[in-house]
From TrEMBL:
InterPro entries: MFS (IPR011701), MFS_dom (IPR020846), MFS_trans_sf (IPR036259). Keywords: Membrane, Transmembrane, Transmembrane helix, Transport. The chain crosses the membrane at residues 111-129, 141-158, 170-191, 203-225, 310-332, 338-356. GO terms for molecular function: transmembrane transporter activity. It is a multi-pass membrane protein. This is Major facilitator superfamily (MFS) profile domain-containing protein. The keyword Hydrolase does not apply.
């Protein structure tokens, strides 16, 4: 009886010790997760959002420059502007994957900050453009310099957040894109008023000021974008947390610089037919939307609005995109049906295009403004959810990096060539 009693006591003690150990693991896991999430929310995400805004400013400020007689000063026509934009997107495609391979080797802080600095400098150099060749070269180099920022930043976010946390953060990250698109025409309208100051055209002020802003952002990124090693936890706590991340992400994300992306992995990702519908869907949407980032202010001028007024009104569609993104992100989280949410968002955009096509000749200029604004607002509300959906279903951080690099980089190169000459809008 005494032996049996001692055995029961020993078993009870072991069970209690095991429960205490599990509680300790859970506590350390929660502490590490809270610290990781806090650092990501307060430093990583805001800095990448600002970087995304500067990226979008340098890409889309040509829209305001065109309303400031940029094309006539450098003696190019609309076909050349379209060609320049297509060369920019081809530059993005050419270096999208190589850029992310480099990021995987050297780490986000060094590579992303250098990248933002380079495309900021290229944006500034556009003030020296005087002819067709100079325009085409600067647009090409701008695309090459910007290649990889979006997938690189989203990969960086995926190393800080679990699957459950990622969707909302990706949506917030895209606030940088659409916030930059919204601010660009407003800032452009203000800078165009400097036309003639210091011997510079208004469009030169646009390229100079917004390019210098990107250079300033790159310095901030270099000094303040945190790395995982800054988390003040013991190696034991880090190992415990890795167990927690493993439960959430299916596989822990290796720190940047510790992994290698092979050509075989790149090829397998590109030839994975299950990913093709994602790439095709994004290509179809961006083929119709990306030209609007260049021509919306010019379209509004053709509708009868003054230059400054047209630039200011162009911001409304991008501002409305922000609540649209939040709405679809909320739908995705509540339903946990990411595929269905993406389909609904794209279908809503398709309806907006059809209404624009059928109604544009039956309304006045304010009605047309409303139709174009609705198209701009609904075009890419699906995009953040689609990106997080792709990332969540990748089996490794390397596959995630390549998949996101492919996603969204092709549509722009095949964007439509809108005809806004001779007072008519023949885009849709």
């Amino acid at each position: 009886m005494e032996s049996a009693l001692n055995d029961n006591v020993n078993k009870s003690t072991k069970c209690s010790s095991h429960r205490d150990a599990m509680d300790n693991i859970e506590g350390c896991d929660n502490m590490y997760s809270h610290q990781r999430r806090r650092m990501a929310d307060l430093r990583v995400l805001p800095l990448l959002v600002v970087g995304f805004a500067s990226y979008q400013l340098d890409r889309t400020n040509i829209a305001s420059a065109l309303t400031g007689n940029f094309a006539s000063v450098i003696s190019v026509d609309q076909n050349t502007i379209n060609l320049g934009n297509q060369l920019m997107f081809l530059g993005v495609i050419a270096l999208e994957i190589p850029s992310n391979i480099i990021l995987h080797k050297v780490g986000p802080r060094q590579w992303i900050s250098a990248q933002v600095c380079v495309f900021g400098i290229v944006a500034c150099l556009q003030i020296f453009v005087r002819n067709k060749l100079g325009f085409l070269l600067t647009r090409t180099f701008l695309g090459l310099a910007e290649a990889g920022y979006i997938p690189g930043a989203m990969y960086t976010l995926s190393t800080w957040y679990t699957k459950q946390e990622l969707t909302k953060r990706i949506a917030i990250f895209f606030f940088g894109m659409f916030g930059g698109t919204a601010v660009s025409p407003l800032l452009g309208a203000a800078l165009l008023k400097l036309d003639g100051k210091k011997g510079l055209f208004g469009w030169q002020w646009i390229f100079l000021v917004e390019g210098l802003f990107s250079v300033a952002v790159s310095i901030i990124l270099f000094f303040f974008l945190p790395e995982h090693k800054e988390l003040s936890v013991s190696s034991n706590e880090a190992n415990i947390s890795e167990v927690g991340v493993l439960r959430s992400m299916k596989k822990p994300l290796a720190p940047p610089g510790k992994t290698h992306i092979s050509f075989i992995l790149v090829w397998k990702t590109l030839t994975n037919v299950h990913k093709w519908p994602h790439f095709i869907a994004t290509g179809c949407v961006f083929a119709t939307w990306s030209p609007l980032t260049t021509y919306t202010p010019s379209i509004f001028m053709q509708l009868g609005f003054a230059r400054i007024e047209a630039n200011a009104l162009s911001a409304i569609g991008s501002l409305l995109t922000l609540p649209v993104i939040l709405l679809f992100a909320w739908m995705s989280d509540k339903s946990n049906k990411r595929g269905l949410t993406v389909m609904v968002a794209i279908f809503v955009y398709l309806i907006a295009l059809v209404i624009l096509r059928t109604m544009t000749h039956h309304v006045d200029k304010w009605g047309k403004f409303g139709l174009w604004t609705a198209v701009n607002a609904l075009a890419v509300g699906y995009h953040p959810i689609h990106n997080s959906w792709i990332q969540i279903n990748c089996k490794s951080s390397e596959e995630r990096n390549i998949s996101v690099a492919c996603h969204g980089s092709y549509g722009g190169a095949y964007g439509g060539n809108p005809d806004i000459s001779s007072g008519r809008v023949g885009y849709i």
